[in-house]
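This is your field. Please look over both lines of this record.
***
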Amino acid sequence: MNLSEDGRASVHPPEDREEALDALDEVVGLVLPPGRWAKVVHALGSLEAAVGSGNTEALRTATGLLESAGGTRVRTRIAEDDEPASQDVLDRVGRLVHSLRGGAPDDAPDDEPAHGDPH
């Protein structure tokens, strides 16, 4: 068992948590076609299951899935049907970030957006 930055117990090694946190951070600023968001949502589900189970290998796999879900091709302009992350996706990202940093899901303040941005 490892300790998070604030001294709480975590079953995932720090480097795996950091990689997952980096992948989650990338989701917040993405603008994607609706079909690509479905892949991100699927990857978030895998990551939630991995975090909940404490399975480090599953965390690594889910992190890779999330990293590839957003696409790797650099786009120079946004297509007409592209959209930012939905509030549901942002909320799920926020809960995952909180969990990976060692907090219990009930520790998140209700009046603060889950992804850390003020409004």
The CA atoms of residues 55 and 80 lie 39 Å apart. The two ends are 35 Å apart (CA to CA).
